[in-house]
Amino acid sequence: MPHTIRSHSPLNGRANTPRSYGGATERVVEALREAIVTLEIPPGAPLDKAVLTARFGVSRFPVAEAFTRLKAEGLVDVRPQSGSTASLIRLADVRENMFLRRALEGEAVALLASRNDAALLVEVDRNLRYQKSAVEAGDRPGFHRLDLEFHDLLVSAVGYPRMRATVEHARLALDRVRRLLGTPRRHALTYAEHCAIVEALRNAAPDAARAAMAVHIDSVMSELEAFAVAKPEVFADREPAADPLQV
């Protein structure tokens, strides 16, 4: 059964003219992307084009265009003969994006530790206080937002736009993974790992900062590998665990 999608308002019942296709496509892309990334539409779920055209009040063209764009982002699988689905997660892609983040963010915090930027420490300390409150309140969406902000504060402070764009691209590709692992336990561990990174910055210790970031990234990746074994159906490149009775 197709999943319900919380869309924006329909186009006031107006038929789509060629001039309005662009706006309609953007609206469908935005709503579908949000639903897939937040796991409202889980990996592997079917995407019924007829249902979506009715839901958004658009013709088939904007929905088809949205599928094409989201396919390029790795979020939709388009199969003309069998229908489109929210894409399964590829562990190979996750590993590559985590590798990029480990390398770039590790070097970023090492550089920041050598600068000993007092103003940056004020900002990250404020963010950590909010993270702590979110963990204690069990505010999962709030913690997710603060987690993103924490990493962006650090990467932005380096002042290298192309590096920031690369990290941002890798981060966006990992959003579904982060939400799959977004348990209260993982949030508490993430907060502690963030504190260790900031402590290394405060001590102006580049090697310790780099190591703390590596521990953080590796910890998340290890949990994901374990999750993939337990839930192979979510992943495109993970074989189901062997049945011990069949071995």
Topology:
Elements: H1 21-37, E1 46-47, H2 49-56, H3 60-72, E2 76-77, E3 84-86, H4 91-115, H5 118-137, H6 140-158, H7 161-172, H8 175-180, H9 184-202, H10 206-230
Antiparallel strand pairs: 1-3, 2-3
Labels describing this entry:
three-stranded antiparallel sheet, Arc Repressor Mutant, subunit A, disordered C terminus, Four Helix Bundle (Hemerythrin (Met), subunit A), mainly alpha, 10 helices, 3 strands, 66% helix, 247 residues
Shape: elongated
Rg of Cα set:
21 Å
Oligomer: single chain
The share of residues in helices is 55-70%
The largest β sheet comes out as: 3 strands, antiparallel
With strands numbered from the N-terminus, the spatial order across the biggest sheet is: 1-3-2
Q: Count the beta strands.
A: 3
- The assigned CATH architecture of the largest domain is Up-down Bundle
SSE series:
HEHHEEHHHHHHH
Helix- and strand-based class? mainly alpha
**End-to-end CA span:** 35 Å
CATH topology of the largest domain: Four Helix Bundle (Hemerythrin (Met), subunit A)
Low-confidence parts: 7-20, 241-247
Mean pLDDT, rounded to whole units?
88
Full CATH superfamily name of the largest domain:
GntR ligand-binding domain-like
Q: Domains counted in the coordinates: how many? A: 2
Helix tally equals 10
Percentage of residues in DSSP E strands: under 5%
The CATH class label of the largest domain is: Mainly Alpha
